[in-house]
Design goal:
It is built from 5 helices and 10 strands; from the N terminus they run H-E-E-H-H-H-H-E-E-E-E-E-E-E-E. The protein has 175 residues and is α+β, with helices and mostly antiparallel strands.
Length: 175
Amino acid sequence: MDLRQIKELMAAMERTGTKRLKIKEENYELDLERHDDKFPAELATIPDYLKAAENREDRIFSKQEMPFFKATGASQPPTTIRNGQENEAGDAIKQKKGEVVKSPMVGTYYLAPSPDDPPFVKVGDLIQSDSVVCIIEAMKVMNEIKAGIKGRIIEILVENGQPVEFGTPLFRIEP
């Protein structure tokens, strides 16, 4: 079969509306498939679907429809601590006396090396700057966190076993 014959078959497929033609002979195999110039119906609806999702998201997160805003009369949603940004709770932590030790990584906070062991520190303990104050587990690795400041533990700000983000306040230390 030569190129001219293949073109004739393609033209015949176009005229008859045939979508697929498969020919198998001893010395060759030909598989022709014709697609319309238009996009398939599924693809044509994707922008409509995305627009509907945007509208749905706007409707779901509008201030008027959220119970939090109705109950409190708040004009903004509560903020979240992200990469060094502080919310009102973070500002309150800064305003109390003492230095704050923050998490240097994302992970799970542990106050003791194991559930059976005593905690590394408790409120009132005197510590050195190189004292281990907790462990943060990240990707199955236990990372010892040192105080970085000499003083007395005046407050433990995170509960044992809780997840923490980078910059989460862990302890308050009075130098």
